[in-house]
Specification:
mainly alpha; three-stranded antiparallel β-sheet; about 45% helix; elongated
């Protein structure tokens, strides 16, 4: 009987400690010191939430930078990978189709298309592309917006400015957040020819 009460005390202690105190402490600390991250890293413009820097958005118009493909059509609810492995014929077919479509719309050779523009991320919602994936889209954007060719250099500088380095210098790769890039693109003042 003594072991029963010891077990019951332990259960109550750890229930209060790990079920109440710890979650409240973590919630308090995250809200106090990491408010933006704890609340989804939301991006506001004109006092209106327009997205999260953690979740890709579907940009399809030619005057914007496009994100990498999404397995779930950029829907955050059923996020996940396509689960197609490297030997999958469906995956190979999708990559071939994407490569041809991108090469045509970007007016480049198929071999120039960066891999991250051809494949989905593990979550299917990665908001980043490589700097190369962003820069290869610049000529399409300049042409679509009817900007002078000199705008190409400004957009290259914009991509370089917004390029994030690997976390702690070693984790991940250099990357550009497409939503932030498109917001900065909208703020550019470039005249027509």
């Amino acid at each position: 009987m003594r072991e029963f009460f010891q077990s019951l005390r332990s259960l109550l202690l750890f229930s209060v400690l790990l079920g109440l105190i710890y979650p409240f402490a973590m919630t308090f600390l995250s809200q106090r010191f990491f408010y933006s991250k704890a609340n989804g890293s939301l991006i506001e413009k004109d006092k209106k939430i327009i997205g999260s820097e953690l979740i890709a958005q579907k940009f399809t118009r030619s005057e914007y930078f496009w994100p990498r493909p999404s397995a779930g059509d950029y829907n955050a609810n059923p996020s996940g990978a396509s689960n197609l492995g490297p030997t999958s014929l469906d995956l190979k077919s999708q990559i071939v189709t994407r490569r041809k479509d991108l090469a045509k719309s970007l007016e480049v050779e198929e071999s120039q298309i960066p891999q991250d523009l051809l494949t989905t991320s593990g979550s299917g919602l990665d908001p980043h592309v490589s700097p190369e994936g962003a820069k290869i889209q610049i000529s399409r954007i300049v042409k679509s917006r009817k900007w002078p060719l000199e705008a190409t250099e400004r957009l290259n500088t914009l991509v370089d400015t917004l390029t994030e380095q690997p976390t702690l210098g070693i984790l991940g790769e250099r990357r550009v957040n497409i939503l932030r890039l498109n917001l900065a693109l909208e703020d550019l003042k470039i005249g027509s020819p």
